[in-house]
Design brief:
This protein is α+β, with helices and mostly antiparallel strands and 278 residues long. It has one domain: 3-Layer(aba) Sandwich (Glutaredoxin), CATH 3.40.30.10. The protein is built from eight helices and 14 strands. A hairpin with a 5-residue loop joins strand 3 and strand 4.
Length: 278
Amino acid sequence: MSVKFSAPLSIAALALLASPIFAQQPGPPPILREVSIAQRLNEPIPPEITFRDENGRTVRLGDYFGKKPIVLSLVYFDCPALCTEVLNGELRTMKAITLDLGKDFDAITVSFEPKDTAELAKAKRDVYAGQYGRPGARENWHFLTGDQPSIDALTQAVGFHYAYDSASRQYAHAAAILVLTPHGRIARYFYGVQYSGRDVRLGLVEASEGKIGTPTDHALLYCYQYDPATGKYGLIVMNVVRAAGVLTVLVLGIFMFVMFRRERNHPSGPPPVGVKVR
């Protein structure tokens, strides 16, 4: 499934328009025409794509698959504005939900700037994992760098289209995070730099195929459905009506059962002949 969206790019447009290079241009710069996200829901990310981890070791994306759902973000590490906001929003959301990084899900942040180094990736990892503050964050929030062919393979697989502007020496790109299934399939896209804790939690629970989350989470997934156009979960009125109907029938059934038991244990009417009532 491939769906193309440009609405979230307004943030990237504002970031670029704030630059003196574009301040005198009427309307959005032409470079933004090259920037978009083409959703590829349920499509697999090739596990053989290789990157370098924070210690400079070569890793395959598939090395992180097969265990837990994954929050994936695409940024570059010396970005002056938007990428920091994406990571800050991701951090705020991960801190807000009760699911734990490392226990319930993993996180992977990949730089699409081939000049970024493992040393810079490690510095970013230490900052954000440190601010997350829960045990296991440094081991389970992976910051990766790579060469252009690997970057191209990943960005094409997730439908992340960006462009480099040589005049401003900045990248124009969208703001979003993704949720992957444990097996590396794209489950959800969440746009912007502020991500609803409820939506991200439901996305992780749904991507985990029922392996994480509470009964309340699974009940909410019955009443809420992901909308690809908005990148959010919306209420499904018919499912709420059905759930209310089932609950009503259940309550009536319990009431009738209790009344029937009470009637059997304490029958009404006149006592049998020969029985004295005191």
